[in-house]
# Entry
Amino acid sequence: MEIKQQLRQSQQLVMTPQLQQAIKLLQMSRMELVDMVRDELLENPILEDQAEIGEQSPRVGSDASQPNQESSSIEQAVAMDDRASEMSVSKDEKKVEEIDWDRYLENHSMQAPLPSGARQGSGDEDLPGVEATLTKREDLMEHLAWQIRLSDLSDEELQFAALVIGNIDENGYLKLDDVPMDEIVPKLAAEAELDAEDAEEVLKIIQKMDPVGVASRDLRECLLVQSEVLKLDPLLVEVIDKHLHNLEKKNYAAVARDLKVEVEEIYDVAQAIAELEPRPGRDYISEEPRYIVPDVYVSKVGEDYVVSANDDGMPRLKISGFYRSAMHGDPKAKEYIQGKLRSAQWLIRSIDQRRKTIVRVTECIVDKQKDFFDLGIEHLKPMILRDVAETVGMHESTISRVTSNKYVATPRGVLELKFFFNSAIRRESQEDIASESVKQAIKKIISEEDVRSPHSDQKIVEILAQGDILIARRTVAKYREMLGILSSAQRKKYF
# Structure
């Protein structure tokens, strides 16, 4: 064993912070990029937004030939401001005792009338802020808590009720992770130090609150509570209690045989049950709206399609010339500004490169999918990341980042760039077809079927085969589920 030095030459990929930032920018959505740029504008004084500073602001390089003039102007302004401050302080010290503050405040309130509709209160009271005047939609927990506060419950029962409404999911059902349905109430009752039988009674009270059926543990209990409150027909209650699984399968004949009634009566019962609410919390789901802003536009000009970047709302970054003069004095200030300048230049370059890359990839997609834009979804071609990567001379991972969370506005609607990438379905006598086109074909077949005799998955396979689309039955089932379409038994309508 000995210690010695060796020289060795090797190559390795080093991910600099700038390179990491460029990769991160590439996979950001438009809204994420705007937020990031605004944060950089706050943190880096070298950066400016041309849209905010207006046309009078100096452009990049416009002040490079006059650094001394700008520096002297800044120094003169600072000197004048210092002298004005000294004079103001000396005068204020002399006059501070002479000001009649009561009279000043009285005159000020007379000269500044309150806006129309504002309340006339005492001068010490502040008007509520804007946030205090805004309203928000009441959620399910708040709605139930308000009703529980109006009920006559003991402290232990109130504690149990609070635990119940705290474990209600967005659909209005009482759920506990990894806890069987029949053990939920005993577990919450023990935590609230309440007898299990009393806890069941409190739960029944909550379930009959608005919305009726809330805090039920399953669909059967939810519908039974609603039928009890609405005083529905005993036959309907019996069907819910014993044959909900047959109703789901639309096996009305089995229900009629077991209850010894005509099948037509079961049809009527099924219609009545369909009018009940299976998701009591539905009206209190407050989902945030999702706004989609396209990154690029595709417009048809004559027989060609033109791709253009959407720059609306994007900050227009430039290098501020104000700090150039500060680099001629303090060495520490110069080092700080140079660091910020390098960061700003790299950010501007990375954003510009991101913009050009998205446009270039979109142009390639439009060129390969021209038949789709001309003729529709049936003519969407199979395409994978490698097809675009080889054409534009980039790596597949780069294409994946470019197309993630990016949207394009086209004559066919606003689409995600990933929409155009589909696997191929083989055809014997024609060229391969995209899987998305097959999904739309399945959707069209089902939309045109007889609702009293819907097509089975095997029947859909046979219909597709007539159009030279050869796929297995399990593939049809997979695509149907991806489209959110029920099975043929569940689609069948008897009335």
Q: What stands out?
A: Residues 55-124 have pLDDT under 50 and may be disordered.
